[in-house]
Amino acid sequence: MNNNNGIWSMNSIAAITVCNEKAEIIYMNQKAQSVFAKYGDDLKGQSLFDCHNAHSASIIRKLLTEGGSNVYTIEKNGIRKLIHQSAWYTETGCIGGLTEISMEIPFDMPHFIR
């Protein structure tokens, strides 16, 4: 079996950002780096609290404390995106931080009930 060590995420069309339990960014794939380039060239180590408003910061704190997910869609500059933020867990079951996956979605995306 070929282990690509995360190459799939680095080259994904979705923006993937990961933080640790202190809300410090520990990973950004190429798409996330491009999306957030206006905030700096290398955001690793930066706190999510430095770049989010009070409402967003409260959601981040809740996810880091309680786990779970925060999922929603946005529209910005004529582009619609799905945002999925969720806790990730350590091998011992503790919350290790958060992941955010952001991907562009079509305006007329079908919805199926199965």
Notable characteristics:
single chain; 114 residues; alpha+beta; Beta-Lactamase; 3 helices
Please write the CATH class name. Alpha Beta
CATH T-level topology: Beta-Lactamase
Q: H/E order of the elements?
A: HEEHHEEE
Count of DSSP H/I helices? 3
Distance between the termini: 33 Å
Shape, per Cα inertia axes:
globular
Query: Which spans of ≥5 residues are poorly predicted at pLDDT below 50?
Result: none
How is the biggest beta sheet arranged? Answer: 5 strands, antiparallel
* Helix/strand/pairing category: alpha+beta
What percent of residues are in strands? 35-45%
The beta-strand count equals: 5
Give the C-alpha Rg.
15 Å
Please identify which CATH superfamily we are dealing with. PAS domain
Mean pLDDT level: 92
CATH architecture level-2 label? 2-Layer Sandwich
Helix content: 10-25%
Q: What is the strand arrangement across the widest sheet?
A: 2-1-5-4-3
Number of domains: 1
Topology:
Elements: H1 7-10, E1 15-20, E2 25-28, H2 30-35, H3 54-66, E3 69-76, E4 79-89, E5 95-105
Antiparallel strand pairs: 1-2, 1-5, 3-4, 4-5
